[in-house]
Write a structure and sequence with these properties.
The chain is mainly alpha-helical. The chain is built from three helices and two strands. It has helices at 2-116, 126-150, 156-168; strands spanning 119-120, 188-189. Keywords: Membrane, Transmembrane, Transmembrane helix.
């Protein structure tokens, strides 16, 4: 009986030990399976992180490349804009110079056209011109004297005094010439120059030696001015 009880106790102990061992193994395998699942998930997560980092690096590289291209494009645009500004100022100055040159060419063409149809009006003989002016002055004096003679007797003495003063004081015929305002346009006439027109001979200066006698005042030309008419 004691042996049977002892055997039974040993069988129960063995069964309990086996059941405990089986339960422990079951929990161990379950924990190991969970561990492997977690390791797989961690590896997958790390792979995803690596892929995301690689994609971020790729995107950053592309963004930096795009920024460099934008900087180069902006630099080129600024350079082109600067050149266009300089060229616009140069073109404006060149167009202004061309306009001035065009005006000058038009003026020169107009002047050459006017010079082809114009000639300078100069007297053929200067002595003849001076003689004509003096004759007109004498006529003017004679007409003024006739007007003075027609006035009443009260003004006769005054006119005689004025005539005496005119006779006593030297008269400069050049100063009595009528003052005419200079008109450069009146010097030109719209007459086409003739090729067969004879030009007046030039004035030859008078040359006199030391032992040569001077000519009399009567032999001198009309354009000669006496010594008393020359300013001191």
């Amino acid at each position: 009986m004691f042996l049977i009880l002892r055997l039974f106790n040993s069988i129960l102990f063995v069964v309990a030990n086996v059941s405990v061992a089986l339960y422990t193994l079951q929990r161990f395998f379950r924990a190991m399976r969970t561990h492997y699942q977690m390791v797989d998930e961690v590896e997958e997560y790390s792979n995803l992180v690596d892929q995301s980092r690689a994609s971020l690096d790729y995107v950053g590289a592309k963004v930096m490349e795009a920024l460099r291209e934008m900087e180069s494009d902006i630099g080129k645009e600024v350079y082109v804009t600067h050149n266009l500004t300089k060229l616009s100022t140069k073109i404006a100055s060149v167009s202004r110079r061309f306009a001035e040159l065009e005006e000058g060419i038009i003026e020169l063409a107009r002047l050459s056209h006017n010079m082809e149809n114009a000639t300078v009006e100069t007297p053929s003989d200067i002595n003849e011109e001076v003689r004509r002016i003096l004759t007109s002055l004498k006529r003017h004096k004679s007409s003024a004297a006739s007007e003075h003679n027609q006035r009443p007797q009260s003004h006769q003495r005054r006119t005689t005094r004025m005539s005496r003063s005119h006779v006593t004081s030297p008269v400069d015929p050049v100063q009595q010439l009528p003052a005419v305002a200079p008109n450069p346009v009146s010097k030109f006439t719209a007459v086409r120059p003739s090729r067969h027109r004879s030009r007046s001979p030039g004035l030859v200066p008078e040359v006199m030696l030391l032992d040569e006698q001077r000519r009399s005042p009567a032999d001198k030309p009309i354009g000669f001015r006496p010594a008393w008419m020359c300013p001191v």
